[in-house]
Amino acid sequence: MKAYCVETAAIRYNLEKLTRLAGKTPIWAVLKGNGYGLGTGEMAKLCHEAGIRRFCVTEISEAMDIRMQFAQAEILMLRPTTDLGELQQMLDLDVIATISCSAEAAALNSLAGQRGTVAEVHVKVDTGMGRYGFMPHETEKILSVYLHNDNLAVSGIYTHFHSAFCNENAVFAQAETFKGVLNALIKAGVDPGTAHCCNSAAFLRWPELHMGGVRLGSALLGRVLVKADLRRVGRCEATVDEIRWLPTGHSTGYGAAWKARKPTRTAVIPVGWYHGFAVSYGDDIFRIRDCIRAMLRALKNMLRRKKLYVRINGSLCPVLGHVGMLHTVCDITKANCSVGDTAILDINPLQVRGMEIRYQ
User: Cα dist. 142→82, 109, 124, 138, 199 in Å?
Assistant: First the structure.
């Protein structure tokens, strides 16, 4: 047995904390990636119970999951598109579209005109993220979305910070660039609509940047890279499949990366990297400073003898050798453990697959 267990009490705690910090600033709950791996519909329900009525998604299926439950919810599609089929579905679902270039504005304006309706949209400005958005200097193109598309109603404008978890100077440089665009629109006699720029990390660190709304995703799960009084949501639970003693000198796992220095009692758990355990991301950047940081981090972990652990009956049991595709072996020599007992493994919900998502 294995399942990913989601503590609704922890989610409710985080929602209460975040809504209190936001005060009167509207929260857009970001439920991309199928609700960060936890199910869009289930997460939307918990957010709605906490008073949140605005949601951000990236897929039509996510928008549909929310709209089926909440007819009056505001749903912002963060991913822009010119695909006719997707635009049709977005109009059917009454989704707020993102416009990040003139071609997208033209496509949606034309379709909305054919259907005799007006589509609500937010404009995206690229202040440095490098994916989607008008460039800040493209003032005329941005103005055109507001002024020259009779079947588009622009109700908001936003940008996205790329380094809110680590670089304050970069954040405020982006914020100033974004404010420059807002000022240019106002100077031209245009009401920009609701302006928003804060993701979870920026929301928690800089209240002065909250503007007309904040977009919170990872904070809902308590998995942010800044200090915050939030609870981590989600854990994998799996039964111990097998227990055995390995003699001195015996190895385990691919590459025989670990060998027993003395007789060791081990447990085999049916969870591996395929399910998301011990999977990391962020090692796909090859700037010199990032490579150096990665090497220093690895050296630091080696010197500290930092290990992976599995929790069984209250004991932290070190993982032995490489984590396999579908199995993990851990040391239970000092633990109270029997076949069939429950092992708890920490897995990021976005990386979970191959197991049931179970709300508790």
Answer: 17, 14, 9, 6, 23
Kindly report the pTM of this predicted structure: 0.89
Q: Give me the tens of pLDDT residue by residue for the chain, a chain 360 residues long.
A: 899 999 999 999 999 999 999 999 999 999 999 999 999 999 999 999 999 999 999 999 999 999 999 999 999 999 999 999 999 999 999 999 999 999 999 999 999 999 999 999 999 999 999 999 999 999 999 999 999 999 999 999 999 999 998 899 999 999 999 999 999 999 999 999 999 999 999 999 999 999 999 999 999 999 998 888 999 999 999 999 999 999 999 999 999 989 999 999 999 999 999 999 988 766 556 667 666 666 666 566 555 556 899 999 999 999 999 999 999 999 999 999 999 999 999 999 989 999 999 999
DSSP-derived letter for residue 164 is T
Which pairs count as long-range contacts for 100-106, CB under 8 Å and 24+ apart, including other chains? 100/124, 100/126, 100/132, 100/133, 100/134, 101/134, 101/141, 102/141, 102/144, 102/145, 104/80, 105/144, 105/145, 105/149, 105/152, 106/149
Q: What is the DSSP string of 9-67?
A: HHHHHHHHHHHHHHTTSPEEEE-HHHHHTT-HHHHHHHHHHTT--EEEESSHHHHHHHH
**Residue 269 pairs with which residues in a beta bridge?**
328
> Is 265 annotated as belonging to a binding site?
no
CA atoms of 205 and 336, how far apart (whole Å):
43
DSSP 8-state code for residue 207: G
Q: Please state, in angstroms and rounded to a whole number, the distance separating the CA atoms of residues 176 and 170.
A: 10
